[in-house]
Amino acid sequence: MSGLTPIDKGKQLLADSVFQYLGAAIIDGTLEQGSRIRDAELAEKLNVSRMPIREALQRLERIGLVEMMPSRYTRVTVVTDELVRASLAYAGYKCGIEIYATLPSMTDEQADHAVELLDAMDGALGDAAASIAARIAFSRYIASLTAENVYKQHLEDLDLALERNLTHVGPVVSDDELRENYRRLREAIRARDKVAAERLVREQFGL
């Protein structure tokens, strides 16, 4: 935990700030896979009380980024091949459902932006890091268009877990297949064809 620094105490709820801060630290490797977390030490490093630390850790546990054994240990979970496969499947269905739900009500401006992000995905093919970043940007934009509901916060939290689990996973289909997929997805977005769009998004994940 040596790379952690005191957290910015702004207007956001402190537990939320700690959750996002620790989530980012897990994603970028500041908190390494398998490393143990001691809430007292963490509270001192972040210059916050132990209560928001505990709340944030419980929230991270619910989405699988940490595991907690009461009175024994709290540690960052390890990304296994099985976890990657499960995360790919979940991400594919999640993104498919979100575009199915949002496409019919998209404004022309929103559809134009979705296509711009899709163009960025196309342009990033061949560059693993850029491709991953472009895919995350597209999926998060589509998710941002979903209506507010009781599950929205949970889905946003899960998105953080998916980013960690899939951050180094390249395309599961060939670049040529993706290029053709993106072309057809552009057409589906323009036509507001939610059925075709959902199918095409799932195909990007090999589903």
Automatic annotation (TrEMBL):
A Gene Ontology molecular function term of the record: DNA-binding transcription factor activity
Keywords of this entry: DNA-binding, Transcription, Transcription regulation
CDD domains assigned to the protein according to its UniProt record, in alphabetical order: WHTH_GntR
SUPFAM superfamilies documented for this protein: GntR ligand-binding domain-like, Winged helix' DNA-binding domain
Ranges for domain HTH gntR-type: 12-79
Pfam families: FCD, GntR
Matching SMART domains: HTH_GNTR
Leader sequence segment: none
Protein name: GntR family transcriptional regulator
Source organism: Microbacterium paludicola
